[in-house]
Write a structure and sequence with these properties.
Largest sheet: none
Number of domains: 1
Mean pLDDT: 93
Low-confidence stretches: 1-6
Length: about 325
């Protein structure tokens, strides 16, 4: 495999990825909070914010092979890789779930409570803990957790894909990409990573192009193929967002500072924004439907979600992030 230098410096690479994560997380927030807006252009724009999830998948397809580059990516490193991913991501997820359930329980004890009666079965708790809710048809404590379930399935498979991606032979590297694109044709439902094989392939292509292991012509052709296959399964808009995400990773522009800052807390924001901003949005729906009133609640949902996510990042996510970095060192 070619060991030529990256197109851009490692610092620039981090800036690009943080900026994309920030935009993706903001888009998902707009998607959930936009439902509180009156009908109009702004609400229509927000309705496409869920495309941020597609961008997150592309970023994972790019970032994980890069991480495996640093560790050698052999079969012996798979347990350490999975453990590092677990320590990096799971404590924040578990903390967010616990926080939401605790708030639900406490709220149900308040006189005059009008929400859903508190109660969750042991099977549902287990399904949430093991990321199996979509498979066993149970409700998520955190609605966006379905994408984390797909990510975990991807983490299990990607080390084997990397063995092909790091090959010295272009034919084998390209075969790995084609294999993942083809996975989207398999007759599995959307709760399985195979349905999303083509979008992770877009991340693989950015990785190969970044490492100068694929020509621009081959990259372009395969990106079009991967986006087309993904579009067949999920629609034109998600396919377009995914393809643009793959290209954006390779751009020299590192994004604005606020985008990069938002990207650094994007996981915390992703986990907690429905809990924080969703409640503010629900409160706004009780008021008269005019643009000024709803806009105030819309903006408040965004900024308070970001504010809460920053604290969550500092006190919950950041320590687990540091702990994961120490594994295997």
């Amino acid at each position: 495999m070619s060991q030529e230098k990256d197109h851009y410096s490692p610092i620039k690479r981090v800036e690009i990825l943080d900026a994309l994560r920030g935009l993706a997380a903001l888009g998902v927030c707009l998607y959930h909070f936009g439902r509180g807006l009156p009908d109009g252009i702004l609400k229509q724009v927000c309705s496409h914010g869920n495309l941020g999830v597609d961008v997150f998948f592309v970023i994972s397809g790019f970032v994980i092979p890069l991480w495996l580059d640093r560790t050698g990516g052999g079969l012996k490193q798979i347990p350490a890789f999975l453990l590092k991913r677990f320590v990096r991501l799971y404590p924040a997820y578990f903390a967010a779930c616990t926080m939401i359930l605790a708030f639900w329980w406490i709220s149900s004890l308040v006189p005059g409570y009008r929400g859903k009666e508190f109660g969750i079965e042991g099977a549902a708790i287990s399904a949430n803990i093991l990321f199996l809710c979509d498979i066993v048809k149970m409700a998520w404590v955190i609605p966006v957790s379905w994408s984390l379930a797909i990510e975990w399935q991807y983490y299990i498979l990607v080390p084997f894909a990397y063995l092909m991606l790091k090959s010295q032979r272009a034919l084998i590297r390209n075969a790995a990409v084609v294999l993942w694109i083809s996975m989207s044709f398999l007759p599995f439902e959307r709760q399985w990573v195979t349905a999303y094989g083509s979008i992770f392939a877009l991340g693989f292509l950015s990785y190969l192009r970044w490492k100068n292991c694929i020509t621009l012509f081959s990259y372009t052709i395969l990106v079009v193929c991967a986006a087309f296959v993904y579009g067949m399964r999920f629609g034109i808009a998600p396919a377009t967002a995914a393809a643009l995400g793959s290209v954006a990773i390779l751009m020299p522009f590192g994004g604005f500072r606020w985008m990069r800052s938002l990207g650094q807390i994007s996981y915390s924001l992703y986990l907690t924004h429905v809990f924080v901003g969703g409640r503010i949005t629900n409160l706004g729906l009780r008021f008269e439907e005019n643009f000024q009133t709803r806009a105030v609640f819309f903006v408040a949902s965004i900024f308070l979600s970001i504010f809460f996510a920053w604290f969550f990042f500092q006190w919950v996510e950041k320590p687990s992030h540091h702990a994961s970095q120490n594994i295997g060192n």
